[in-house]
Amino acid sequence: MSLYDLIKNTNITFEDLAKTFNLSIAQISGINNGLYYHNNEFVYPLRLKKYSEELVKQVTYALKYELDKSLKMIADEYHIDVSQLSEINTGKIYYREYLNYPIR
Fold first, then answer.
1. Contact predicate 88/59, CB 8 Å
2. What is the mean pLDDT of the segment spanning 55-84?
C-alpha cells in the first residue's frame, strides 16, 4: 500500500506514518495537503478529519487550561492525531474568532 493510500484510507496517525517512512510529521501533513509530492490524480486533503463541536471545545479547553499536559498527551486522551491538534492550536482548522492563536 502506498503512502498516499495509507494517509487516505487508514486511521494510522501521522506520527506513526512519519516513523514508518522516516519522514517528519510536517512532511506527512504536507503530503496530506498536497504541498509535497502533489499528484493531480488525488483530491486534497487526502485525509480530512471531522470532529464534533463538543470534541473541539474539549480539546480547545485542554490546550488553553491544562498546561501540565503535553500535546501528545492531549491527542492521546481525545484520540486525535497530533498534527490535527497542532492545527487546532494554531487556528488552521476549527478557527474561533474569540481565541488568540496559537492557543498554547
1. yes
2. 94
Residue burial 39-63, b: 16+ Cβ < 10 Å; e: rest: eeeeeeebbeeebeeeebeebbebb
Distance CA 45, CA 30 (A): 9
Question: What residues does each domain of the chain span?
Answer: 1-48, 49-104
What is the structure's pLDDT at 71?
95
Alpha carbon of 83 to those of 40, 44, 68, 76: distances in Å?
24, 16, 19, 12
Does the pLDDT of residue 25 top 80, yes or no?
yes
